[in-house]
Amino acid sequence: MPTIIAPSVLAADFGNLERDCKMVNSSDADWFHIDIMDGVFVPNISFGMPVLAAIQKQAQKPLDVHLMIVDPDRYVETFHKLGAEILTVHYEACNHLHRSLQLIKSFGMKAGVALNPHTPVQQLKDTIQDIDLVCLMSVNPGFGGQSFIEKTYDKIKELKQLFEDTKSNCLIEIDGGVTDQNAAKLTSCGADVLVAGSHVFKSADPLSTIKTLKNIN
Ligand code: DX5
Ligand code: ZN
């Protein structure tokens, strides 16, 4: 399967959001990655519903919404209405992860679970059959532009092993510090989706940066 590329809008120019969304529409990217931060689960606040509504108006590709918020069940329906096709919650933010996954699916969305760098993939052993996407955080969530944590390669392999052990399968997404320097190794370990913020939007030619990522295998 070709790698899915999901530019993270967090690194876009918010004064030119329409332009940047159109750039993603016309690029080889597959999804829009949308980072929602509440200033509680992570030490930063990104943007909320009105900005997502503006993105939704422009976006012609699926919205992959990454919730870095406490008690995400409160907003599952809201993000469905705002066009999320994939809705990812953090393992560390859910007291009842199984219930959260069922709630997301009840609205017809794909259910994702993100793991912080310190959370072992084994924690997903009992829910993996219910998950459509595992997002392995390759930085500590909260900010764009951080450097990639090398341990992530091992975690991809551990997740692949968990799939084998449990006879399950789902998409593996890598989020944080992804560049053309680590993309090939990530996909060869088993990554299906690469999120890239700064590397795309801060580059001189985002369209060709996306094309390069898309063609790395
Ligand atoms: C971090 C976010 C990422 C971030 C990635 O908390 O979840 O999606 O936007 O940004 P880069 O690619 O710049 O590390
Ligand atoms: Zn993200």
Describe the SSE topology.
Blueprint: E1 4-7, H1 17-26, E2 32-37, H2 49-58, E3 63-68, H3 76-81, E4 84-90, H4 97-106, E5 110-115, E6 133-137, H5 152-166, E7 171-175, H6 183-189, E8 193-196, H7 198-201, H8 206-215
Parallel strand pairs: 1-8, 2-3, 3-4, 4-5, 5-6, 6-7, 7-8
The structure holds D-xylitol-5-phosphate and zinc ion.
CATH topology, what is it called? TIM Barrel
CATH architecture: Alpha-Beta Barrel
Give the helix tally: 8
Instruction: State the helical fraction.
Output: 25-40%
Protein architecture, described:
The protein is of the alpha/beta class. It has a single domain (4-215), classed as Aldolase class I (TIM Barrel, Alpha-Beta Barrel). It has 8 helices and 8 strands. It has helices at residues 17-26, 49-58, 76-81, 97-106, 152-166, 183-189, 198-201, 206-215; strands at residues 4-7, 32-37, 63-68, 84-90, 110-115, 133-137, 171-175, 193-196. Strands 1-8-7-6-5-4-3-2 form an 8-stranded parallel β-sheet. Helix 4 links the parallel strand 4 and strand 5. It is globular, with a radius of gyration of 16 Å. The N and C termini lie close together (10 Å). The model has no long low-confidence stretch (mean pLDDT 98). The structure holds D-xylitol-5-phosphate (DX5) and zinc ion. D-xylitol-5-phosphate binds next to strand 2, strand 8 and helix 7. Residues 8, 33, 35, 66, 175, 195 line the site of zinc ion (ZN).
